[in-house]
Each structure stands twice: as structure tokens, then as C-alpha cells.
Amino acid sequence: MKLPRFSAAGLQKLGRALMLPIAVLPIAGILLRLGQPDLLDIAFVVAAGDAIFKNLGLLFAIGVAVGFARDGNGAAGLAGVVCFLVATNGAEALIAVPPNAIAGMADKARPLAEAAFRAGAIAKLSVPLGILSGVIAGQFYNRFGAIKLPEYLAFFGGRRFVPIVSGLAGIVLALIFGTGFSLLDHVIDALSYGVAAAGPAGLFAYGLLNRLLLVTGLHHILNNIVWFILGNFHGATGDLNRFFAGDPAAGSFMAGFFPVMIFGLPAACLAMYHAASPARRAGVGGLLLSLALTAMLTGVTEPIEFTFMFLAPALFVIHAVLTGVAMVVMDALGVKLGFGFSAGLLDYVLNFGKATRPLLLVPVGLVYAAVYYALFRWVIVRFDLKTPGRDTVDAAPMAAPIAGDRAAQMLAALGGQGNLVSIDACTTRLRLVVRDQATVDEAALRRLGARGVIRPSADALQVVVGPIADSLAREMREHVDAGPLLPVPKLIEPHAPVPRPSPEVDALFAALGGAANIATVRAVSSRVIVVVRDDQQVDPTTAALASRMLVSTRPLTWHVIAGPDAGSIAAQIEAAPRP
Fold first, then answer.
1. Given 3-state DSSP classes, what are the helix, strand and coil percentages for the chain, each rounded to the nearest 5?
2. Cα dist from 415 to 6, 23, 487, whole Å
3. Residue pair 65/137 in contact by the 8 Å Cβ criterion
4. 426 is a catalytic site residue
5. Considering 62, 129, 426, 511, which one is annotated as catalytic?
6. How far is CA 560 from the centre of its chain?
7. For 121-139, what is each residue's pLDDT tens digit?
8. Cα angle for residues 138, 142, 143 (degrees, 5° grid)
9. Model pTM score
């Protein structure tokens, strides 16, 4: 049995996969907070929210497995559950209870104390076990999802084989974690104490690295260690978990983000606006206001950061340093703040009652707004940095959001469907594997609204598109699954006469609103799939189409049931002259 190996690309994929289970935390935080006695005082709502935090390991096993699976198939998630349950229950049975944990217990109470110790031990290891189970299950799905077994075992082949082999891997994990619990427990405790002992230096390093690693996407891995593993409070591990469990010492690794996201980065947007050329401020104002509000309200900052990360790297370094300083300042003031998703205003208001000294965010935030504005404005002007709206800057970062058939446009800019090996997404970026980086048109991607393009390796490509990343990736996969776009014929000379479409194709043009209304066309099996620019111009009831059926499957997409003539009809449509 071959366990997964981690390369730089593998770590990239892990960082993306971790975002899927984290995405459920906002609803958990909302339920847990709203049900508290100082708000709605509804016990079952608290229990509902707490259930998510108590089962984070299981959620990570499912989410990471699906994230690692090449096609996001749910079978990988099932395999992750199997691996996790086998590993946790097996390890729990193997954990040796130290004598001091049951010293002085009556005979009847001893089994209960042993069971409680083992349950607490597994809870402490739940998230690491969940992540490992998800990684193993996802990798096994990619490796064994299409395996063929002998005929007498064929029923267990393919995807059914993945949970089986993942269960075997779970036994290996159970042996490692069960027999080695004492050592693992000491390592986690030593790491927790080491981070705590590092004090301001450790907080500064975390804040600095959190932003610097943003370029690679590996900051998610760093966050998961700090938020879900370090420390222990009545069985809750990690700064985020402990904050929601009521640990008064938790929140140090989250509080420092609030002044940056609610005050600092919006002020940076204002500085970029004032530094823009007067003639171009109207053009960049809407974009920068949208980015500022996104960061302030939700804590999603990548759209802002990628606006200046590559155009003005010096500003990004300043931003990373200021984030580290904010961690130190908030901790020195005794401020403990937490969030379920990110450090935006919505999380601040929602978790105000659980925080320690939360009102201090206002004066600190106002100071941070002034510092960000002054530093960004001075550095931009002093060194003539080409931020959005400066005279010579490429207008691409100010492009409007992708409109129309955005998936088809994005695929074309990425070198076509054939250039893509895999299509994934995290919170704000497409995470792609491409065959040839040279065919990717970065300028076209920026015109489509991309705010950054990153190439972590020879075949890895990340495109920052904002919160639409996940839905855009899904639409792109749907296009790829539907079949390749029909290429424009290359045999027609520029000045040669274009073959005249048949009367049937002429009628089809009319039904589709004319040649100018047709954006793309492809032939898939017995159908011609046409993407149009305006659905209102399409008339599927025209009498000329009596021999064909024209149906809409989704906005702007129409299927022509053409039978064996699909390829010929698609070619005629593609070759026909258009205005």
C-alpha cells in the first residue's frame, strides 16, 4: 500500500482542500453564538452549533478527501469517513491510560475514567487524524478509483474498492496513533508551549508568515495548525476551537487580523484611490470601494492584496509586517477576538459577547487606518508604484467582473480546454494544472477580471478572481465535461469564398437570433450545443425547425437535437460569416 507523498504541488492541493471543511464554520459560529444566554438563550441551538465543532475531524476527513479527488467525487468523501472512523476507534482502543489518570478511583468508576481519558485523547487528535484520513482517501480515489479486479471480485472494483483500501489505511493510522499517543501528545504539548513561550515574537512571526505565504496558498496549512491543533481547553484544541469553547486565553492568533481587515486594508484602498490620476479616479473608485467593503464586512482580503501584490510588492511586504505587528499589539492590550470565518465586521459583531476587551479594536483600528493610509500613500507617490489608476498602469486590474458566458471566455484565455489537466478552486482563486503555461493569455485573464496570476510550479496555475472562484470553476468543469469547443476551420483561405450554409442551417440561424447572437458552438454526440448572447432573441417554436428540437438547458445555452448530422451542422454554423 503506497501512502501519499507530498511535493510542493501536493501542499498546494492540501491548502485548497482544507478550505472546504472550513467553509462550514460560519454557520457553526452563528448557531453557537445566537443560542447563548446573553442572546436568544436557546439550548438546542447551542448544541447544534457545538456539534460541528465537536466533529471537525470527521468534517476534515470528508472535505479534504473530496478536495483531493481529481473530480471531487463523493466516493472519496465516503472513503475518508471510513478511514477516519477506523483510525479513531482503533486508536482509542489502543491508547494506554496512565496510572495517575485512574488513581484513587473505585472499581466501578475506573472503566468510566478510562473511557473518558481515551475519548479526550482522541478528541485532541481528531483534526490531524481527519486531515490525514482525507488526504489518504483522496489520493487512493485517484489511484484506485478505476481499478479492475478479477471477474469473481468485480463487484468490489472501481470506486467501491476505495473505501476498502482506505479502511486498511485507517488500521495503520490506528496503530500509529494508538500506540504512539504518549509521544504525539508530548509533541503537541511541546509545540503549544513553545508557541506560547515565544510570546510577541511568535505572534509577529505568525502574522508575517500568514500574509507572505498567501502568494503560494500555503497559509491555510499554517492556519490549521494554529486554529485547530495548538493548545487544549476541556478537550477543545486550537485557538479557534478554544475561543468558541469559552477559553479566556484563546483568540490571540485571530485578534490581530481585525484591525487589518476592518480598518487597515480599506484605508489602503483609499490611499490607492487618492494616489490615482485624477482623470482615472472615477474608473477605479467603484472597484476599490467594492474591494474595501468586501474586506471590511467579510474579512475576504485576497482581492485587495492581489491588486497590489505584483504591481507593487513593496506594499505587500509593508502589509505583511503590519499584520505581524497587529498580532503583537492586540495581544499586549489583552484583546481576545475570534471568528468563525474571517476577521470582518460581521464576525466581530456576532462574537462581541464572547470576546475580551473587544472595544479596544476601535482605537487600535483607527490608528491602523491612519498608518496604512499614510504609508501606502507615501510609498506609492515616493517610488511611483503602479497601483490601479496610476497613469502607466495596465488597466486590467480594474476590469469589470466576468459577464456573459464567463466559463467559455476563461477557458479560451487559459489556452483552451485541452490545455487544462484539472480545475479546482478555493475561496478566491482558481487552482489549475495546465499542460503548457506558454498558451495562457495573462492579459486576457486580467481583462476578464482576474486580479492576479500565480505560477507556483511548471504546471500549476492560480488565477485570483474573487469570491466567484468556486462557481466559476464549476461552470468551467461543466464546459469541459460537455466536450471540446469545435475549433474554427483552418482550411478556408482568408479571401476564399465561404461555403454557403444549407437551408436548414439558415433556418437554425434565424431561430437562434441570427449569426451575431451566436457566441460559441460545439458538437457533442448527437447534439449541437450553442451558447448565445441573448436568450430573448431565440425562437425555439419556429416552423422551420419542425424536424429538429431546440431546447434550453440553462441561461444562454441551447441544445439542437441533430442526430448523426450534429458535426456537419456545427461546422456549417462555425464557418458561416458573421457581422
1. 60, 10, 30
2. 28, 31, 12
3. yes
4. yes
5. 426
6. 36
7. 888 888 899 999 999 999 9
8. 115
9. 0.66
